[in-house]
Write a structure and sequence with these properties.
- The protein is of the alpha/beta class and 236 residues long.
- It contains 8 helices and 13 strands.
- The strands form 2 sheets. Strands 4-3-2-1-12-13-10 form a 7-stranded mixed sheet.
- The radius of gyration is 17 Å and the shape is globular.
Length: 236
């Protein structure tokens, strides 16, 4: 079984489908989406349809994490500051995408609420995923703000617990942070490597923000990174 982890999609359905075509997830594979399905890009409603198809196809082997953009949609009441932030980071693109299909963005909330989770951990290998970051081990000891919204944990390079894959912070390349305050490494695409035991790997590479969409394919203690060719042909 492979585990295919996909970073923040941000309303880019063509890129998502291109990446799935490249990764070719099989019926025995596991699929983990790190959250932030919507906003910024023009195809949030299309992403929603694709993700629901994937959930039906993979069943228990489908994992969807709650990102900060899902959190804005799912909170019962936002503060004025939260609403302002959401408007600044692409809410309008999602409203327009759903409206073009004769729907409302809020129509997606019940399904997202039922299917999003705060974190995922492979009990066999110890590999973990959250949207934003974590400060302490075990993962469930971290608060919701840390797991969903914190913008500094990975780049402060302070977490040295079991390897955790995150999104949330758009970087120019997937990056491993060792957790010692110093050691970090930009990671190559298309090369099979041994999984680090500790630290954080961030695979948000700016989909919907002028960057591209990245996946991390994990199998037998090794990983390979892939990107959506359609979004970044210059990196081929």
């Amino acid at each position: 079984m492979r585990t295919i982890i996909i970073g923040d999609i941000h309303g880019c359905d063509r890129e998502l489908r291109a990446l799935l075509d490249k990764a070719q997830p099989g019926e025995e594979d596991r699929l983990v989406l790190l959250g932030d399905l919507f906003d910024r890009g023009p195809e949030s409603r299309e992403v929603y349809g694709t993700v629901r198809e994937l959930a039906a196809r993979f069943g228990e082997r489908f994992v969807l994490l709650r990102g900060n953009h899902e959190d804005y949609l799912l909170q019962e009441k936002l503060t004025l500051r939260q609403r302002w932030i959401w408007d600044q980071v692409g809410r309008g693109a999602t409203v327009a995408s759903f409206k073009a299909h004769g729907e409302r963005m809020e129509d997606a909330a019940p399904w997202l609420r039922a299917n999003c989770r705060l974190f995922w951990r492979d009990e066999e290998t110890g590999l973990q995923c959250v949207h934003a970051g974590l400060m302490v081990d075990p993962i469930e000891a971290n608060d919701t703000q840390t797991l969903i919204h914190d913008h500094g944990i990975a780049q402060r390079n302070v977490y040295a617990g079991p390897l955790t894959v995150v999104g949330h912070i758009a970087l120019k390349a997937p990056t491993w942070f060792a957790g010692d305050g110093e050691t970090m490494e930009e990671l190559p695409y298309g090369e099979w490597r041994e999984l680090p035991e500790k630290g954080i790997i961030c695979i948000d590479t700016g989909s919907g923000k002028g960057g591209f969409l990245t996946a991390m394919i994990v199998q037998d203690g090794r990983y390979q990174l892939a990107w959506a060719d359609e979004a970044a042909p210059e990196r081929a």
